[in-house]
Design goal:
The complex is a heterodimer. Helices cover about 80% and strands about 0% of the residues of chain A. In chain A, helix 3 crosses helix 5 and helix 6 (about 155-190) packs parallel to helix 9. Chain A has helices at about 1-25, 30-55, 65-80, 90-110, 125-150, 155-190, 200-215, 220-225, 225-250. Chain B has helices at about 5-25, 35, 45-55, 55-95, 100-120, 165-170, 240-265, and strands spanning about 125-130, 135-140, 145-150, 180-190, 190-200, 205, 210-225, 225-235. The longest helix of chain B is centred in the first third of the chain and has 37 residues, at about 55-95. Classes of the chains: A mainly alpha, B alpha+beta.
Chain lengths: ~250, ~270
């Protein structure tokens, strides 16, 4: 009960600070954005810690666990985007905006942890969910970078840096996603007797991987065009996260 | 060969597969296809395909969708093979860069994975959802027979036979003891008993290529009193291990390529 109250309190603090993070980044207040970002990151850690204290396991399924954890990963990436040669104000604002979006969904869906399903204690099930919950924000971050890089008339060097970063996170997100897929296949094989099932979840997962593959295999002409790259790097993260959110929100009300 | 190995063809093939998957996602949620699609999991896809091609219009359309998906994947495999042969393999002669080796390996492993998928759909046998009460048995291909000798279920049987989502909520660690709930199963080859095992959920029996999986327990109220039975999946595929080995190797290769992408200096404007 105490853990629930603590995590709920941390949630509101996390949300409030993330909103401030968007505002500070949007207004170009770099020092404020860093300070608020650090505080938001700590609040996110407290929130996720509180959720874990309630369940006694890592965040796995359900809106509260998954969205809270993904918001924490995105907050880490948003905070990290403020440093180094590729520090970019629109990217920081977009990343904090994504954190706010995920947390805002938790304002109106029931904020409750998932019942402790016995299968959650199976190693490969955990590996599947943990990889999926890490891969989604990584892919989403790659898409946000694609949205944030300057157009043709903007800073060419910044564009080059952000294109490279977007590609790297697309690769990393896909690799983690695939690690989750193979864990999920093994879980499914042990539970249902086959590693593949013909349903929406399996088809969606395959589609996310193929969209990432398409983005990583552009012919040279298209790969040299920032606008084409933007169109290619965006869909894996945007559609993947969109599909994931639809699942979580609809399941929350069932 | 040049056209078959081109990135443009690959994008078209990927586009075709993605389109088919999108159609499949819609079909998985729209009646009557949402009711028919789970039947694709009941046995080998090849058997389902042969049966459904001559079936009702719903399953007919689903099988046409499946064939279109296979055709698009077929073009992709052809492109992968040609690309590996004409582009990635010659790159190795120009030097021994680790990156070139990893790229070739990733593509070859992808081909193996897709072949593994094909074998899972066409080789051996699969029977899903075999419901057996203690004392009942089921005959399988290859003169095999499985019999449930005893079911030991220590939790509340009233919590059985629930829809998936509801079951996921009530079958908590406290309400379902995975270690204590067991089904004692015997496997017969002709008149000879070849194996006896206690099956638990998530702990399948694998013996001589036969994989016997306990998916869930069910309650049977048909004879006045409640009895608990086992829902089993029996399957046999000689290449399942190979598929997983290829998949793991592929993911490892992908991770190495990712590490390389992070370590390498940013390339000039382009796709790397």
């Amino acid at each position: 009960m105490q853990a629930a109250v603590f995590s709920d309190f941390s949630f509101w603090v996390f949300l409030g600070l993330a909103v401030l993070g968007v505002a500070a980044a949007g207004c170009g207040r770099a020092a404020w954005a860093r300070a608020v970002g650090l505080a938001a990151l700590l609040a996110g850690l407290a929130f996720t810690g509180g959720v874990c204290a309630q369940t006694g396991r890592p965040p796995l399924g359900g809106a509260l666990e998954s969205l809270g954890y993904m918001a924490l990963v995105l907050a880490t990436l948003a905070f990290g985007s403020q440093f180094g040669p590729g520090a970019n104000r629109p990217l920081v604002a977009l990343a904090w905006g994504a954190v706010v979006l995920l947390l805002f969904i938790l304002v109106w869906v029931p904020r409750r942890v998932n019942p402790d399903w016995f299968i959650y204690h199976y190693t490969w099930n955990r590996a599947f969910f943990m990889c999926r919950l890490l891969a989604m924000p990584l892919l989403f971050y790659s898409a946000l970078i694609a949205l944030a890089w300057p157009g043709r008339d903007g800073d060419g060097e910044m564009r080059r840096l952000l294109i490279t970063r977007s590609r790297r996170f697309l690769l990393l997100g896909t690799a983690v996603f695939l690690l989750g897929e193979v864990s999920g296949f093994y879980w499914c094989l042990s539970w249902r007797g086959d590693y593949w099932l013909w349903n929406r979840n399996f088809l969606e997962s395959t589609m996310i991987f193929l969209l990432a593959s398409a983005a990583l295999h552009l012919p040279p002409k298209l790969a040299a065009n920032p606008r084409a790259l933007r169109l290619a790097y965006g869909p894996p993260g945007l559609l993947g996260m969109g599909a994931f959110l639809v699942h979580q929100v609809t399941e929350s009300f069932l | 060969m040049k056209h078959l190995s081109s990135l443009v063809l690959m994008l078209y093939a990927l586009g075709g597969v993605v389109f088919c998957l999108a159609v499949g996602i819609v079909m998985a949620q729209v009646r009557p296809y949402s009711m028919i699609m789970p039947s694709m999991d009941h046995g080998l896809i090849l058997d389902w395909l042969l049966a459904s091609l001559g079936g009702k219009s719903g399953s007919m359309l689903l099988s046409v969708w499946f064939l279109a998906l296979c055709a698009a994947v077929g073009v992709l495999v052809l492109n992968l093979c040609c690309c590996a042969w004409t582009k990635l393999l010659p790159r190795l002669q120009n030097g021994t860069r680790v990156h070139s080796w990893l790229l070739l390996l990733a593509h070859v492993l992808m081909i193996l994975i897709l072949l593994g998928h094909l074998s899972q759909m066409t080789l051996g046998f699969k029977q899903e959802g075999i419901k057996l009460l203690p004392g009942q048995s089921r005959t399988l291909p290859g003169d095999l027979r499985i019999a449930v000798e005893q079911v030991h279920y220590v939790n509340d049987p009233k919590l059985l036979n629930l829809p998936y989502r509801r079951a996921r909520q009530v079958h908590t660690v406290a309400a379902f003891d995975r270690q204590k709930n067991v089904a004692r199963v015997a496997v017969w080859q002709g008149a000879q008993r070849v194996e006896t095992a206690e099956l638990r959920i998530l702990e399948p029996l694998v013996k001589n290529g036969l994989r016997l999986t306990l998916s869930e327990f069910y309650r049977d109220d048909s004879q006045g009193r409640s009895r608990v039975g086992a829902v089993l999946t029996a399957s046999h595929n000689p290449l399942t291990g190979l598929f997983f080995a290829a998949y793991l190797a592929w993911v490892a290769t992908y991770l190495l390529l990712t590490v390389q992408a992070f370590v390498r200096k940013p390339p000039t404007l382009g796709n790397g």
